[in-house]
Amino acid sequence: MALITAPTPLATLAERYDQVRAFTRRLAAPLAIEDYVIQTMEDVSPTKWHLAHTTWFFETFVLSPHLEGYRPCHPQYAYLFNSYYIQAGERHCRDRRGYLSRPTVEEVYAYRTYVDEHMQVLLNHPDEALQAVIAPLVEIGLHHEQQHQELLVTDIKHVLSVNPLRPVYRADLTALGTPEEAPPLAWLSLAEGTYTVGHEGSGFHYDNEAPRHTRYLHEAQIASRLVTNAEYLAFMADGGYQRPELWLSAGWATVQERGWTEPFYWERHDDGWQLFTMGGLQPVPLHAPVCHLSYFEADAYARWAGMRLPTEGEWEVAMHLHGPEVSTATEANMVEHDALQPVPLMAAPSGRLHQGYGDVWEWTRSQYDPYPGYAPAPGALGEYNGKFMCNQFVLRGGSCATSYTHIRPTYRNFFPPDSCWQFTGLRLARDV
Amino acid sequence: MALITAPTPLATLAERYDQVRAFTRRLAAPLAIEDYVIQTMEDVSPTKWHLAHTTWFFETFVLSPHLEGYRPCHPQYAYLFNSYYIQAGERHCRDRRGYLSRPTVEEVYAYRTYVDEHMQVLLNHPDEALQAVIAPLVEIGLHHEQQHQELLVTDIKHVLSVNPLRPVYRADLTALGTPEEAPPLAWLSLAEGTYTVGHEGSGFHYDNEAPRHTRYLHEAQIASRLVTNAEYLAFMADGGYQRPELWLSAGWATVQERGWTEPFYWERHDDGWQLFTMGGLQPVPLHAPVCHLSYFEADAYARWAGMRLPTEGEWEVAMHLHGPEVSTATEANMVEHDALQPVPLMAAPSGRLHQGYGDVWEWTRSQYDPYPGYAPAPGALGEYNGKFMCNQFVLRGGSCATSYTHIRPTYRNFFPPDSCWQFTGLRLARDV
Amino acid sequence: MALITAPTPLATLAERYDQVRAFTRRLAAPLAIEDYVIQTMEDVSPTKWHLAHTTWFFETFVLSPHLEGYRPCHPQYAYLFNSYYIQAGERHCRDRRGYLSRPTVEEVYAYRTYVDEHMQVLLNHPDEALQAVIAPLVEIGLHHEQQHQELLVTDIKHVLSVNPLRPVYRADLTALGTPEEAPPLAWLSLAEGTYTVGHEGSGFHYDNEAPRHTRYLHEAQIASRLVTNAEYLAFMADGGYQRPELWLSAGWATVQERGWTEPFYWERHDDGWQLFTMGGLQPVPLHAPVCHLSYFEADAYARWAGMRLPTEGEWEVAMHLHGPEVSTATEANMVEHDALQPVPLMAAPSGRLHQGYGDVWEWTRSQYDPYPGYAPAPGALGEYNGKFMCNQFVLRGGSCATSYTHIRPTYRNFFPPDSCWQFTGLRLARDV
Amino acid sequence: MALITAPTPLATLAERYDQVRAFTRRLAAPLAIEDYVIQTMEDVSPTKWHLAHTTWFFETFVLSPHLEGYRPCHPQYAYLFNSYYIQAGERHCRDRRGYLSRPTVEEVYAYRTYVDEHMQVLLNHPDEALQAVIAPLVEIGLHHEQQHQELLVTDIKHVLSVNPLRPVYRADLTALGTPEEAPPLAWLSLAEGTYTVGHEGSGFHYDNEAPRHTRYLHEAQIASRLVTNAEYLAFMADGGYQRPELWLSAGWATVQERGWTEPFYWERHDDGWQLFTMGGLQPVPLHAPVCHLSYFEADAYARWAGMRLPTEGEWEVAMHLHGPEVSTATEANMVEHDALQPVPLMAAPSGRLHQGYGDVWEWTRSQYDPYPGYAPAPGALGEYNGKFMCNQFVLRGGSCATSYTHIRPTYRNFFPPDSCWQFTGLRLARDV
Lengths: 432, 432, 432, 432
Fold this sequence. Notes:
4 copies of one chain form a homotetramer.
Chain A: H1 13-28, H2 47-66, H3 77-81, H4 105-123, H5 128-161, E1 187-190, E2 193-197, E3 213-217, E4 220-223, H6 229-237, H7 249-258, E5 266-269, E6 272-277, E7 280-283, H8 295-304, H9 312-322, E8 361-367, E9 393-396, E10 413-415, E11 424-425, E12 429-431
Parallel strand pairs in A: 8-11
Antiparallel strand pairs in A: 1-4, 2-3, 4-12, 5-6, 6-7, 8-9, 9-10
Helix pairs in contact in A: 1-4, 1-5, 2-4, 2-5
């Protein structure tokens, strides 16, 4: 497979539409038809569903209301490919997405083509008032598609992993570096005081990143880099999974119930720990960031280390003070880097926060809640974020499956504390 | 699709092997690749799995032990496609058959071809002693494959039915007759006394049909034909699903728990009851046999009618005394008739037992147990029957998805009392 | 506590009523109030509930319809203490019987007294026509109460057993004998031919024991005594719980799911196997009958031993040909023997079937079904038996918790194949 | 029953010990023995368990380590009555607390007496250094006991409520006032800026209330009083329980799954809504605070009203600026008021925050998390709070079942968002 490329940020909206949509196809290209269909746990959606659902989004929120005379591709796709948008009508049960052999993969691609052609008509329509109306909807649709690109990767990783034949997604992914050791972990300071956080300006962002507001932080320090597999192995060797005092109560119950003794996708082989990756099984790379941790595991590790996870406010301020520019995310290990797994940190200039973008989503200790003055977007699109503000923790920074055109320092991802099928890891913080 | 044909009973074993194996392919031919993959409830296996599992049977029990130098097609297929044969080794969980996107459908067909080619080598081997050893194994393998042909049909019916798009298996199935009314139900007598039941002679049969033995029957009568949809609708209209006194205790619990108010695959539409069939939705055919009943429903109907279900002994004796010859099963509505649903009884000469073969498997009131002197076959093949003798009821006669080369008057099918995804119905009996 | 005595069979009905009812109180007498209230698994009912439900039976089926001017003790007891009699009205959920702290134990005893006083009025009423009507209802009520006496014992055994304090029901129970070894197991023959089984004559019996009818048996042999703990230990030592080929498919699933490795109420201690009994923990008595086996275990043991369980027809005929008279049940280890656990067989004259009554209910291989010509009793009392004819196996002979006035050679007890909290064991049979 | 009185705050520790422990007995006094034993849902513990567990606390954390020669009352009570203190050793499963008929209630009271006598010895010991060590442990033990007093009340309410006989805890509880209408709801302002929150000084507090720290609030307003039943009925009448857009996603799933259509303990009768209270069923009092709401319901109500719940920071600051002194909690509707249900607000001087203490715990929108610089107490007592910081929301202010000696403005209670068996309600807030 040729090099994966991602959309150019400065292109026109019509060009960006094409780029993002084409990238989805490229992600699915290595799959067999059979891989598109199945659902191997409730969190996982079939690839076919991702392809159709993202298309449904444009059909429902852009074409149907704004392209005169538009007729939906199929009368029941609205029912089949809605996810949780209650105001957008009835929908097929999430846990039965794997029960749909039809429409076929070919039909789903035809659906994409149908919608794409109509979208190009609309995006090239000369009416500027219309363009002004649809532009923000298309923007959200493209970011929505990029979220599903990441899910497509993580979900297909699960689909392949449960198969005893251990199929490989691609054998030609970008290889890991193999440093002798990880750069030393340094501490970056945050002074006590008021800071401003949240999204600023007119660029695209989700409603949950706004409004920009003042927050009071207490003196703290944040680690210069992510926790590595080698460091996590020390926690395991010290009985990390056997010591209830290291865990949240709900975390310990989860460990017991599911019999967790190592991170997800790890396997103990005769010759040591192996890791299932998009490129197949491989030995656990000692100095790469530890990955596929649940919040419970990240939190237990931090407690074991005598530290804690950062709050999301601390993370955002630290990125502002010590981290890379978002424009440098192109250099980070994001989906365009084509590794599809976290890679070891090679060079690490001191005094800076490294790996802030890409590699792994970083768990914060912040439970996902509304910012002061938060107001959800109106209509069905307002269901996007606010209604999940319960039993979720915020993650920051994007992963090796996130596009650099999709990440921002204010971006708030969120998952329940027992989730571990995403590329998720941690960075330490401590009080002073 | 051209006419479906089934194997000729008198062909050589090698010819019959080809015929049965080819028939499986023909049954799967109308499907899209996606249809082969999914598992829509635990009882249902993916078509792909049926294709591979029946092939595994020949590989495991015939080729590996008896074809010199045979090398299994793939080292892990033995693990993936074993079903419940514990003595044949470890196996993949039944409820995760739908989690296997690989091997692909193409690879599974290649597996079939690989095994078929080796089987032909073996079946044409000149060593007569070898032929004598493998012939009974191949026989059981072919009957095993025919059982899975029936399951393939019933399982794919379920797969298509849960899809809101309501795909059709084939649009050109043999049409139902449409009589004005069902022939009148007559009663055939069974005199009290001793009878002999069970399989006789050297023909193929399963271990559970033997030994042939004496049984004492009491005076009874058995109905000349199956219960029809029109008759079952009268039960429904009389509150059949709302009256606990008509049901077994476990049956009533099932009715409440699953909210049953009509037979499986029935749907109430504005213009009346519709039925999901292999040819799509159609109005319930009033004079066709009622189908997809659980034992609980068949038993409740019989109680409501003031009668009972026959015992399997009564059924077998009645077929012997009043029923058709098994050689006439070619004229019955079996899979070769290519209707894939029960059809109305048209002509019904009096004094005879009609619909004994085909249309629907007939629930008997007999719980599945060992015949006196029963001994399971030795080795892994002995796991075939005896170990299911608990919480199963016996069904007799074959259905519209059974081959006429597979049925016998002594054939004992069995399912748990809440099963209804098979083509199952009932015939009444009564004490005198 | 003084010697437990049971009702005299020849007493008047009023006397027998008093005797049976008093015996229930005597069984509950050793308990603390707290023991009466709780429900430690769904099969278990609180002692308080048994006391009230048996009383409700007389109130509902005898007093309310037949004692002029009778007013129920409390308007809601009919709702609270109905069990499964659907025709007797709505009822409180079985799995919530342990959620009822009221009525208090004192109030329940007052309910018993209230009903007993009215019953004595009715039983001493001079109207002979009335007596003729109520006598069979009172009979069934007394046998119903005796069934609940047995359940009261087995349920309270469970209640005490789950308590880490291991309370003792009574410390002064009749002690076991301690023979050097069990008498040798001999085989008693059954010749092939027709036999008559089922209840005969006018004595009390349940509807499921009738009608008396002809049955054809094949040549077989049945063991002269029950299987002992020592024999069962040999099965365990031979990997009985680890070998799937010894088990029914559903049995093996149960073994895996519940982690069974020994009989219920057994515990492995440092110094060997201990058994929880009504008299507390004690070492497993080697030559006493093995007890608290599920059907699955009894069946697996028999298969391991190269034999099988008897059918219920074989058991009944063997008792008739080789067993003790039912009048000798007074000498058997039944509830009046006051051991409340199976005891070793001491003397065992050859050529006879021993332990046919008492000690343990004997699992037969017969699934519980209706006899030919079976008709349930009319009305709510007809719900007593027939509606459980699904997924139950028949047990015969009574146990150490059954009264000798309650057992008959035709008595058919039944439980699901995974039940093991009753006093249940096995006797072997074999084909010839 | 005589007037309930609570401990005097200024008494000596030994006196306070007696007062608090005696108050527990007084709360249990109206119960029948049977009421002490059962567990009617997992959240509910038997009264007997509360009595023993609070006693175990003093035995384990005070007597065993600090009273020379102390011997535990019973060797297994430590196992039976530990709750979740993992570092204090193994413990009996929470969901099986209702399976313990022993120790009896009488034995549990003897346990209390045994521990109380030893505690008085210790509390009157002349060694001042010892007193300095045990005083904080006794303090936490007394507050722990007060928490369980509240749980005892809410748990016994549940125990009585599920009984179809609808027993009454006490018939002589303090009656509600019956105002014509609720005082008008006014809005109290919070200016933007930094505030200090958290516990200050040396008084008793839990570790989760510390450290005192700076927090930045945005301009907002908070309601002067609680939401009433009449107001909540308007939400219900407007389809509140049928409109998914009003609910958090997890909340809507809960509504669907449990079939919620009104608050817990409400029942629709022919003559209107009834409420189950400690004094029995009564009509819903229109102007009393709505109670037994889950977080999901409180949040949905606020969204329906176009407002939101306050954060815990806002609540604490508002109490400081506009609320009553904590010393006036004696006048609030707390457990000493002996109503055991929320009562209508009668007089309501303007410009003040009313009902801040007592009546109902007020749900805040704040998920329960550690304060900046939070450090759990060392040892097993440190398991008290921090390990529950996941999927819990903070509640403030105490309820009608809380003692006025137990509440503080900084007190942080917490429950999962679906909990509703506590006395929980809400106060509105809004952005400006």
